[in-house]
UniProtKB/TrEMBL annotation:
<dbReference type="InterPro" id="IPR034660">
    <property type="entry name" value="DinB/YfiT-like"/>
</dbReference>
<dbReference type="InterPro" id="IPR007061">
    <property type="entry name" value="MST-like"/>
</dbReference>
<protein>
    <submittedName>
        <fullName>DinB family protein</fullName>
    </submittedName>
</protein>
<dbReference type="Pfam" id="PF04978">
    <property type="entry name" value="MST"/>
</dbReference>
Length: 174
């Protein structure tokens, strides 16, 4: 039996401010990622049902580094030890051995909180700082471009988690 999952509401239809709309949808999808993992036991969080072999926990770990790479290291040019994250010999994102699911979730929440702090202090038309991800040798994106990039990344990966969760235990939902 397929069990629907109730999702929190999207930003209201009456919202017209582009910044609030963009940030509202980013938070909606950040929450959706965590919601997709809720209820899965540690064993399923660390196992794969897909030909690509990535696990739900690896995807969450990847999204932690997406936040860090694009907002902290990219937009704010903050020093980051490993902006690309930890990859195995096959190039896949991997969760460090022995790292519990709750620690992976906490790291994701911390990365999102830091992104929110950085974004709160900037305007959408601000250009990313150089010295981190961007060295000035290529076009440097605006905060708006970076946030839209994050939004599409989340939308795509939430779709991956939709399918994974349905295969694993039949849970479906937005």
């Amino acid at each position: 039996m397929v069990t629907p999952v109730e999702s929190p509401p999207e930003p209201p239809e009456s919202l017209t401010d582009p910044r609030e709309l963009l940030l509202g949808y980013l938070d909606f999808y950040r929450d959706a990622v965590l919601r997709k993992l809720d209820g899965l036991p540690e064993e399923q969080l660390g196992s794969s049902v897909l030909p690509s072999a990535w696990t739900p926990l690896e995807l969450l770990h990847h999204l932690t580094y997406v936040e860090t790479r694009w907002v902290r290291w990219g937009f704010a040019a903050e020093p980051v030890d490993e902006p690309w994250g930890d990859r195995g010999p096959d190039g896949r994102w991997r969760v460090p051995d022995g790292m519990p699911a709750e620690d992976v979730k906490a790291a994701f929440r911390e990365a999102c909180d830091r992104s929110r702090q950085i974004v709160a202090a900037a305007r959408l038309d601000d250009i990313a700082s150089t010295g981190g991800r961007f060295d000035g040798s290529q076009p440097v994106p605006s905060l708006a471009w970076i946030l839209f990039h994050l939004l599409q990344e989340y939308a795509r990966h939430v779709g991956h988690l939709d399918v994974t969760r349905e295969i694993m235990d039949g849970v479906i939902g937005e």
